[in-house]
């Protein structure tokens, strides 16, 4: 009687060379097959931040810095209004506006700093900041102050850039 050949302990031997056309390529992110090179699968370079995301990041840094400077000025003006006895402007309203402006400025700078490695929450927070800027400009415009149109345009740019396809893909990419 002949004894059967022992099977390899780690499964059948693997073929050499490129995979047969009937064999699928290894799975890759985004559902695309990985191109095969002479030394194995090609590992893609890290994705570069899209232009719309870079523009939004710069806008958030600039606007966040301006808001972070204007907030303490409004708080200081609130204290000075009380000392001067001017009744035209509510002291509490100036304190609230200054505090809110300072908070939005700090959040904008933090969000801009997180653009490089942040996820979808960073993109959504940037859009919320853009909508706050748009609402602030509309309220100022209805009060007769047309000087807030720069904030309106910046808010629209932030929101529209965060909704672009390449920016959405940037924030949805796999991070290592």
Calculate the mean pLDDT score and round it: 82
Largest sheet: 2 strands, antiparallel
Estimated radius of gyration: 28 Å
Record the strand order, biggest sheet. Answer: 1-2
Helix share of residues? 55-70%
Strand content: under 5%
Number of strands: 2
Give the N-terminus to C-terminus distance in angstroms.
57 Å
Q: Given the helix and strand composition, which structural class is it?
A: mainly alpha
Structure explained in plain terms:
By secondary structure, the chain is mostly helical. The protein has a domain at 51-170. It has helices at residues 51-84, 91-113, 120-142, 149-162, 165-171, and strands at 36-37, 40-41. The chain has a two-stranded antiparallel ribbon with strand order 1-2. Helix 2 (91-113) packs antiparallel against helix 3 and helix 3 (120-142) runs antiparallel to helix 4 (149-162). It is elongated, with a radius of gyration of 28 Å. 19% of the residues are buried. The mean pLDDT is 82.
Short description:
The chain has helices at 51-84, 91-113, 120-142, 149-162, 165-171, and strands at residues 36-37, 40-41.
Any descriptors?
176 residues; mainly alpha; two-stranded antiparallel ribbon; 57% helix
Architecture blueprint of SSEs:
Layout: E1 36-37, E2 40-41, H1 51-84, H2 91-113, H3 120-142, H4 149-162, H5 165-171
């Amino acid at each position: 009687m002949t004894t059967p050949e022992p099977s390899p302990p780690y499964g059948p031997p693997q073929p050499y060379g490129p995979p047969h056309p009937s064999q699928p390529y290894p799975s890759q992110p985004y559902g695309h097959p990985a191109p095969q090179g002479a030394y194995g699968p090609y590992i893609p370079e890290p994705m570069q931040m899209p232009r719309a995301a870079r523009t939004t990041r710069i806008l958030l840094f600039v606007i966040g810095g301006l808001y972070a400077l204007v907030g303490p000025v409004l708080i200081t003006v609130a204290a000075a209004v009380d000392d001067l006895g001017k009744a035209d402007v509510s002291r509490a309203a100036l304190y609230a506006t200054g505090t809110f402006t300072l908070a939005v400025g700090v959040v904008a700078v933090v969000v801009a700093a997180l653009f490089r490695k942040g996820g979808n929450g960073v993109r959504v927070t940037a859009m919320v900041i853009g909508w706050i800027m748009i609402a602030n400009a509309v309220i100022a415009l209805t009060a007769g102050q047309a000087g807030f149109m720069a904030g309106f345009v910046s808010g629209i740019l932030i929101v529209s850039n965060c909704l672009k396809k390449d920016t959405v893909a940037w924030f949805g990419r796999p991070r290592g």
